[in-house]
Design a protein that fits this description.
Helix content is 31%, strand content 26%. The chain contains nine helices and ten strands.
């Protein structure tokens, strides 16, 4: 008897099919994913492996990633920073039921403290301090800028000095649409104190003057971090070309 037709596998399949019939009216479904196809599961394993107690969540928009982590049982603290007023209000409401999820004031994060102008994307989550290029809009027409907003910018080292003062294993997550490098430049102390860094990496230029993936990987190497995993993030729906990935880095030096 093949493993695929074993009684245990048949029983699991029947249970899943039965559960899916009950969940279908609610628009839900139980699916099976291999580890390498489940970024959230892979991230949760890394958090457990490194005993992460703190997540610094930069650019969460409305907070779906933090909700996913907490929904999967992450019991540490999450501190989120989001600059856009509308997204910040939604984020604050999402965090309200969780005593271990803190939302900071609505500020941008970058190399230094100053006012910066942000382009507001039509889909919100593609908003950036950097100018969006046509290549991005071609792949995601709903991301086209619809306005501009001036916001206060502060460096990570200023925002999280007190939070990182108490020794504990931390993950720094940055999802800021091409603005990752300026944020890392203002995070020298943070980088020295975190165990993991999750970065959005662009394979193609989607924002003006952004640092691309190989340069960021090299930069992180110089800061004492190596790649732990890469996961696809954004593909061109017309051509299938992979444009962005998420890179998880782990500290190799102390």
């Amino acid at each position: 008897m093949s493993q695929a037709n074993s009684p245990v596998r048949r029983a699991k399949r029947l249970l899943r099919e039965s559960a899916n019939r009950m969940l279908a009216p609610r628009g839900m479904e139980i699916v099976h994913q291999q580890l390498e196809r489940s970024p959230l599961r892979q991230l949760m394993l890394a958090l457990r492996h490194y005993r992460i107690e703190l997540v610094l969540d930069i650019g969460p928009t409305t907070g779906q990633s933090a909700e996913d982590l907490l929904g999967q049982g992450f019991a540490g603290e999450v501190h989120s920073v989001e600059p856009l007023p509308d997204a910040h209000r939604t984020l604050t409401a999402a965090a309200a039921p969780y005593p271990n999820w803190k939302v900071l004031d609505a500020v941008a994060v970058g190399r230094d403290e100053r006012l910066v102008e942000m382009l507001v994307a039509g889909n919100s989550y593609s908003s950036s301090v950097l100018e969006m290029l046509d290549r991005h809009i071609e792949a995601a027409p709903d991301s086209a800028p619809v306005g501009k907003i001036t916001v206060q910018q502060r460096p990570l080292d200023m925002l999280f000095a007190a939070v990182l003062d108490r020794p504990r294993a931390a993950l720094l997550k940055i999802d800021t649409q091409g603005y990752e490098y300026p944020i890392l430049q203002g995070a020298e102390q943070c980088l020295a104190r975190v165990s993991l860094v999750l970065l959005e990496l662009s394979l193609q230029s989607l924002y003006k003057d952004q640092m691309l993936w190989l340069e960021l990987i090299d930069y992180m190497k110089k800061q004492g971090f190596d790649l732990w995993s890469l996961q696809p993030e954004f593909c061109d729906p017309k051509t299938g070309q992979l444009l962005q990935v998420n890179g998880l880095f782990f500290r190799t030096t102390t």
